[in-house]
């Protein structure tokens, strides 16, 4: 488990999260409140969702591919700028990011990474405090040692 | 219509009462929408058999397999065709034809929806056209609301025009033996007039929202619609089968074929063309997928309703209802026809039109002796068809296609509310029925 992690606070905005993510080259950022309690994760998927046309996110009735679009950088930049001031809390209500407890078996961590390959926040079972994250590299290192 | 001896007393009730109560409870549960409609209809059908009103054999004879086969066949054909990307192509192509001007796009997408809905099932049409509409409006940076509402309206208007366009027409056509051409000659003219009158109104209602920038229009003009065709081979095969099936419908009467035969044969032929190159395991997977995509809930709902109405008929309830209708209209043909038109329209606005039409069919058949046999009933059938199909536009719950669009819009974060829809759509629906009133009056009465 890594404990030297970059986190976001509940006062951050989408734009702030995006800046941290791009500058630090991190795919996902756990969000904690001022008491250190884990509130959710802001990750690359949140950014892709802002950028993609809504019609591509309709699950089974989505537009199946976007190969016919004109590829407008201008529109995409506009979408990012529009989302910029939105509070980070708007992006935390999904249950897509799994968490793991400190006492969970390694198989559970592998299963969660298999389902959605982003670092796993390790959250205390009782007080919901963020302890650190587990990445795929730590698991590989553990198994190779 | 009493084909089996009907017990006079069931669980201490008279047969007609028992059937009426089951029917009324089923109707209320369907309207309440708290429970899946297929479950409700099949339970009701089961009670008719368990109560001894009809035998299992009679119940199965009551199911109109021509309606079910036609729906299933068309669902499979459209599902397979949709994979080729042709509907995205068509929507983008039509938007570019009007230089991506929002007002033009609104009119073009409404017309495309109407034409597709006339040839295909409404629900499938909107499922295919709404996602690409959301995409185009997002690129144009205009609100999708007017476009989605207009697509609901025109899918129901387009569906009114043909035998295969809307379930009420499929049911009426099948029960009475009206052909594809009968609908083109009798229902389509009214639908075309309604369309021509509604298009400018739709534009007038929403014209203020149809504004965009030059750069947004350029984005859509730079779409490469050809890239939307993901499987050119499947596209050719699908269009060939769809053309042959439509020709089959037109020639059905001459060929002595029922529409279900044509649709199911077309579905099987398209599945053959799409699968023969694959190994048997892959074929099983693909065919399973094609059939699974059909709307089985709707099909089972139909089967249940047909059996339920058959039970009601066996108990003599339909006959009694027909008598009541005649008493209310004084046996006057004009009054009866126009009451059916307006009554069906208002009811279909708020109640699923499928159970309503399923009940009205045997009821109208019961009126044959009064109005001079089968020939005399024709205006009543057209009144039922126009009323039930166009009535679907009265509210957001008036037809399945409306709910499908509302569901997709909701998921895309662009909800279509019940009341805002009602405000514009109900008036347009009343106008369409007024047009049908004039049409029926001058043509048939």
Question: What descriptive keywords fit this protein?
Answer:
heterodimer, A: 145 residues, alpha+beta, CBS-domain, three-stranded mixed β-sheet, two-stranded antiparallel ribbon, 5 helices, 5 strands, 34% helix, 15% strand, globular, B: 445 residues, mainly alpha, two-stranded antiparallel sheet, 22 helices
Main pleated sheet of chain A? 3 strands, mixed
CATH topology of chain A: CBS-domain
The tally of domains of chain A stands at 1
- Could you name the ranges of chain A where pLDDT drops below 50 across 5 or more consecutive residues? none
Give the N-to-C terminal Cα separation of chain A.
15 Å
Overall strand count of chain A: 5
Number of strands of chain B: 2
Radius of gyration of chain B (Å): 22 Å
> Helices and strands of chain A, in N-to-C order?
EHEEHHHEEH
Quaternary state of the chains: heterodimer
The named CATH superfamily of chain A: CBS-domain
Helix content of chain A: 25-40%
CATH class of chain A: Alpha Beta
Radius of gyration of chain A: 17 Å
Query: How many DSSP helices of chain B?
Result: 22
Element-by-element helix/strand order of chain B: EEHHHHHHHHHHHHHHHHHHHHHH
CATH architecture of chain A: Roll
- N-to-C CA distance of chain B: 29 Å
Major sheet details of chain B: 2 strands, antiparallel
Mean pLDDT of chain B: 91
Describe the strand arrangement of the main beta sheet of chain B, using strand numbers: 1-2
